[in-house]
Amino acid sequence: MGKGDRDDEFGQKMDNIGLTTGKKESGMGKYAFGTCLTRPRVVENVDLTNEITEGGRRMMLEAHPMGGHVERHLLNHNTAYYDTISQLTVVKENGWTYSMNTASYHIKKDNGLVFYGINGEELEFPGDGSVTSDWKLSNVVESATMDTFELPFGRRLTTEVETSLRATERENISFEDHGHRSLSASAQLCDKNHASDCKTCIETQDAWCKSNSWDSSCVAGCEGPTKYMAKGCKEECAEPPVVSVKAKKTKEVDTQKPVDCVVGGWTAVTGSCSVKAGSAACYEKETRSITTQPQHGGAQCPAEGNERLVECTCEPVCGDGFLMPGEECDDGNASDKDGCDHNCMIETGWLCTKEAFGLSECTNGKCECSEWGQGVCQQGTCLPVKGSDLTPACVNDAMCQLSKCGDGIQSGIEQCDDGNKVSGDGCSATCGIELYHSCNGGVGQKTECSKMRVRKDFRDLTAAEKELYIEAVNVLKKQGVYDLIVQTHAHLTNKDYAHGSSGFLPWHRKYLLEYENALRSADPNGKYKDVTVPYWDWAEDTDLCSANGGCKTYDEKGAIFDPITGMGGPGSFACSSHPHGGTIDCSDLPKDHTGADISDFTSECTSGKEFTNPNSGVTSTLPSCSGDVTWGSTGADGITCSATEVAEEGCKPIPDNAVGCVRDGPFAGWMSPEYPENQDNTKTCLSRGLNWNIDSQGYLTGSQRLTQIITQQKEYGSNGGFRAYIESTPHANPHNLLGGHIRSFSSPADPLFFSHHAFIDKVWSMWQNCHDHDETDKENVGSKEYRGTSDGWDDYETDLVFFFPGESSAEDLCEKDKDATCTSCVHGKDSWCSGSPWDQTCKNFCSGGCATECGAAGEVRPGTKLTPVAAGVNCPSCTQSYYQFDDTTLKPKFFHSIHDLGYEGGDLTKPQSYLYAPDQFDIKMKEQKAICDWTETKHHGKEWKQDRRNLAHDEKRMAAPVPKGMKLDGSNRPKDHIPLDENGRPAEMHSHRARKLYELHGQETPARLLAVVDDGTGANNQFCPYDSEGAWTSSYYGWYNDDGIPMIDQEYYIDDKGDERIRYACYCNDGKVWDLDHVTCVSLMPDDSVVFESQDPDTQAILAYWYKLGNKLIEESEFVKDDDSLQFSLDEMTQRECKLLYNEKSKIERIDDVKSGNGATADPFTNKDGHAVGPGSRAKFLEGWGLAPCVGDNEVGCVLDGLANDPCDTTST
Hints:
By secondary structure, this protein is of the alpha+beta class. 22% of the residues lie in helices and 14% in strands. The longest helix is centred in the C-terminal third of the chain and has 20 residues, at 1097-1116.
């Protein structure tokens, strides 16, 4: 078919539906519609409404199907006139003007009229219309449901059209330059892409719509109130009526006269008075119309437009969300029990914000003051709050006063308020919760804080903490309790159990706890109630040495040995004996490099010296030490010095194996009797070795060896495993190498012992945490967590061995040759005693192995002696004591976890559970790839957290079966951290209220609140709250009941209406706890990065080196399994550690024994009197402490062959 044929077919179709198609134009190949205007012409504006309506009416009677006639009013159409219309201008009530170039018109079946624009516009006047506002303007192209065809100008017509249509081709003239609006840009007002009062209203009432594409809830607001819009925007979004329709028709005129724009007067829009968004005032809308449009270059319409807002007086409407005069509150609804009732009155026991023209925020349980969360009941009658145990609310504002930090009532923007502005008590001077404190309370209550039982690295203690601890130790010494505790460790029955057996770790955990309890009870007024034992991280000291290419002495990098701020250094030259412990001879003291006596030494030895205690500040005279007795032994050789070394390095010659009294630091002058009752007349001084030079004996264990042991030893073991590894070289070296008391079983006589064993206990807790052994309840512990030796005496359910020597008989038989039976027994225990006057070692047998023969009563429990007594009972000069040893909890299972240790004497105000504050070693170890899983759970720390929701005690637990589909692992958290409601819209979260509180008071919201994400229900039924930036998370706690049904914990909470409800319980992870408002998880411990960066930069450097090296070794490993790669890296790093310490610069070659010894066959060390005072080699030392290699099937008092070897033994320079 050719082009002309198609045109003919098109014309035929037009004729078939009653359209006048006009004539076919020659050469155009298409049909022209209407009259083709070829002469020059101008247009004039004519009011189209008048042209239609003033033409008169015509009545038509139409037969009705049911009988009779129906009267129809039809327009009197002048189609010849319509043919001349080229453009139409429409003005709406809001002053907006639209223009369209006409393409065609359509006389409808009901005699209505529709003009079509060339861009798809439609302007319709109904058949029964009579006024201008009947015109309807749109640009929606109708959807054809019947056969269609296209007109040349692009309009779509349907065969439903039954009347005539006239159309002319028009030039598309732009009206934008004349200030008219483009219809295609001004569709319905309910449109995000169209700037209007409607858009402003929608996005003001529902902020979500402003930053997102409009959903159905946004669009619904155009029709009135929604779930998210208290008022809705029906008025603002209603399409304004048409007030003027002007036609431009063709007229043959010769001149064009300019016509200026003329506007009408302002007229108020009825019912438009309302609160303007963002303004605390009411405004109403006024409009004006354009009575004359500008033509032919006439003056344009005013730039200010045809609409404005003027201030007006609003009538209050309860529930519209705007607080106005006459209303106490307006929370945007007409509901009761939410703080603001249906009459917009504040309900009893509630507090609502009262910002003029603002939306009232109401909360339960606070004072009804204008300052939300800030008002405090100070006077007047208070009413109880239903369903709440919070401070009752005041009756009215006049009875409230502004809350201030330190008034004892926590306000909404305080973390706590304990009634003072003093820091250090848990709630700081600025009302913030302090580290290492657990607080109870909440908004409207007085905060009560208690210090958590936290043991810190000695080097991290504050000056005040060091002073208080050392003071408590000295007080305990004066009470005689300290020496009784020492004897508990030294007692033969106890020491055999507590060393070289599986009971080593739980026995010393119990022992440390009793010592700590004794310190805390040393003052009846509670001065020391928060004291804890600081730990001595000797691995960190060794790390410092490795970072500096080696150290000369043990105290070079050890903060705990500082004579001013620590516990003092090695033994005194002026009060020393050699070899090893024995009687001090002032004529046989260390000499200078020429062999001459040193006068200062001799003077102090014979006459004493003036000394100022660095802890107490008290100046006194330390008495002469001539004839006093030093204790213990040391494996360190002597030191000789050349004149150059003396001059340049301050070298001091030291005799072989010299031991001296402690004469500096806070324990200077301490006397340490083997029997506490002899404290007033003992001659034995607290003793330490003189030679602390590392090249004489070697280094203490470093952090890489500890990491290796903690990680590789996955089971507790009996004569192997973690216990044996940690008790051998790492534990033994500080005892063995420092010398003096700490090298004997009377080692607790030196306070260094307790800090050393606190670190051993800390390493045990780290091992337990690393392998999740502490997550096992003490009733369900298996062999991995604890295993006794084969004979069963140190089993998990068998009592720890804690005994104390009984009272001696009335007659003291413990003198040589006084009683034949006693004397014979002692000489049989130690042949030296038979040929020499009995020294203290000989006398010790009277209460030990010869107790029966020497008249001592049978053994008793320590609680018999360690009990509160009056002054003078423990010793003649002893002061009153207040401590009671606990003999009731002695099984190893009671000391399985440091976080589950019960309460002292059953007193719930004295929890015994504790934790260790991290130091640099912990932090770097935690970061190392594949080392350990440090994740904390509910069980881990459940008691020391003092859970304020009363869930710490199982008998109070509420629980329910886990709902179907609930994911306990947190995998159902929302994407992009945006929880959605049932409509798929972002839900308002519980935490929003806390954020608004700060905004209300003009304060910056704390960073911890900005990233809080919760499910918006308050019931935790979708997921547990968390921080979107990863600062903290919380999780459900799932477990199985006796029937094997999975359960989930529940708890009570108060909802927004003040009613008590039950929800799923969420617990903070990683050792954190809920803040007092249960909004965020907060750490009661310092942030890892803060701890790490605040400590020694040398340690930071070496640990960063280990971290990088370890990861590099793991990545480069050829092993297939990650576990194998990890083991390889740990072994290699331990060897690297040895090479760093024992390098060519240090000139130290590590050997198995101290230099004076000769291995496993070494004889005991003897003093100048020839009496044995200690094991003569490291191998013999370990044997004496139950750590020699096992023989055959024996598991008691021994370890597996080679286990006690130091990995640095094989390192050569």
